[in-house]
Amino acid sequence: MSQCTAPVRGHIRGGGADCPVHGGRYGGYGRSVYSPPPAYTPPPPRRHPSYASRLSGGSGGGSSSRARRASVSYSVIEYQTLNPMREQVVQFAQNDTKADTRDLFLCHAWDDRQGSALELNNLLMGLEVSVWFSEMDVPLGTSLIRKIDKGLASSRAGIVLVTPALFESLNSDGIAAQELSALLATDRVIPIVHGTTFEELRRVSPLLAARSGLTTSNYASLEEVAAKIADTVLLD
After folding, report:
1. Please, what's the largest Cα pairwise distance for the chain?
2. Predicted model pTM
3. Do 105 and 186 have their domain in common?
4. Could you tell me if 109 and 165 are in contact, meaning their C-beta atoms sit under 8 angstroms apart?
5. Pairing relationship of beta strands 104-107 and 158-162 according to DSSP bridges
6. Is residue 96 scored above 80 in pLDDT?
7. Contact 81, 213 (CB under 8 A)
8. Beta bridge partners of 191
9. How many other CB atoms are found less than 10 A from the CB of residue 88?
10. Exposure pattern of 110-142 as b/e (b: 16+ CB <10 Å)?
């Protein structure tokens, strides 16, 4: 016959929920015996209180983009990757007084500016993310380095589009290498590995590879990655 654990262990943990005799009679648990909790399913990084109520409101592209972000699911590893970024974004926003702040700075190789970098930029903008993207934000005749410096300073977070072209740029100490150095000095950067692997990245930039990130290899499209990034950096 089961025996009460109170004389030996007390009824401290869970208000007696782990006692085979009195489990459920303390603290309103409502269980007669202890059973382990269900498997943990992490919530998405965004936790804005008005978000769910806004999914059915509004019209046009805004409502559609929110619905697409709401349909995103996360693995435990992805949640552990993106939630710290979300916390940094919120903290940055609370201390930010600039009117021209962007949600995201997109670091990419020059050779990707008309390919995968442009595609990712367009996907993010379609999800209502304001992106600093050199192709759109550096007019002809202006200083690229100075514009990049301002873009970095006025962006809540940064992503690095990691491609074979980026490896070539980093090895040649191109503009992308300077952008990456500035991003790595913050806690608001996530690598997006596309068309290559983290193993290859580790050979070129161990510091960037040490950051948790997302990848499009095997299971996720660039569109899915964009939705998860948007869900992380948007404040409303």
Report:
1. 86
2. 0.69
3. yes
4. yes
5. parallel
6. yes
7. yes
8. 160
9. 18
10. bbbeeebbbbbbebbbbbbbbbbbbeebbeeee
